User: Fold this.
Amino acid sequence: MDSDSGKPKKKSKPKQKQNSGTVNIRWIATISIASFFLSVIMSYTSNQALEHVGNLIAFVILFAFIALGILFDVIGVAATVSTEKRFHSMAARKVSGAKQAIWITRNAEKVGSFCNDVVGDISGIISGATSAVIITHLTKNGTDLRSIVLSLVITGCVSSLTIGGKAIGKTIGISRSEDIVFMVGRLLAVFSWKK
Assistant:
């Protein structure tokens, strides 16, 4: 009872825990270490591949890195905006990939960080380095003017493809978020991935 008004006191609801301001040091350390090793592996692989291939294959490798960055950017955006409601009924019906999709949406911050920041950014860095190697190969015996023009054209193309591709990818990731998350869940289920 409230001593002043004589009315019974209302029970205060327990406050929900808010994790928005907390920093997960272990997760930051994990993705930092993963970024280092992933960057080294991808850089070494691209450099080794570029040494033994012609210009056409070199461009294919370059576009593959750009596409990889765009693809993971789409997955990261989809994981961030997707909700798990749809996947609960699917999980109850034992639909393959539904449990993995629930895990992805519940861990959207980590999935988004890995896809956008780790794979996406590393792909951008490697594609830049790959384009530099291609420019060097193409301008070995060329004039200064030709070297400058080729460098500007290739750099401009890589930038426009990356930025334009990610812009389109973000639109797709937002509008088809649940479908994309479910497809990733299905893929993880194929490889017998478990939480």
